[in-house]
Each structure stands twice: as C-alpha cells, then as structure tokens.
Description:
A two-stranded antiparallel sheet has the order 1-2. The chain contains 2 helices and 2 strands; from the N terminus they run αββα. The termini are far apart. The model has no long low-confidence stretch (mean pLDDT 79). The protein has one domain: Pemi-like Protein 1, Chain: D, CATH 2.10.260. By secondary structure, the protein is of the alpha+beta class.
Amino acid sequence: MPGGFSQMEKAKVRVSPKFQVVIPKALREELKIEPGQELLMYSLDGSLRLVPRRSIKELRGLAKGLRWKDEYRDHTERF
C-alpha cells in the first residue's frame, strides 16, 4: 500500500486533553475499521492493543479442520 503502513510500522499519534486518540487513515483503511465499529482495548507487556470485536457469527467455522489429539483432552473424572 503506497504511503500506508506495513504490519509493524509505527504511527505517531497524540492524546487529546479528553484522552482521545485518532487512528491514522492508512491504518483504518488497512484494518477496514468503520465508524461506530467496536474495538476491544487491553494492555499487554506495557503496550496498548486494539482488536476489532468479532461476533459469534464471524467466528463460526474458525476452528474447522483443526485436528485435536486425544492427549489434549482432560481425562479426569467428572461428576
């Protein structure tokens, strides 16, 4: 993407007096972030992360085709 951001490129943003931050246009376009879309924000290892919130319908079939080994299961007694 000419003039855009690579996967690990940084963008400089400023926190407003109301603690708001604008997501740069190139990143919004790359990640297909739309107005009104919900994002999940969390901290990890001293950094902030924003992740698009996905509905259950969007996640449907995500694990399709994964092979589960029997050793992954919990074989302890259940009551």
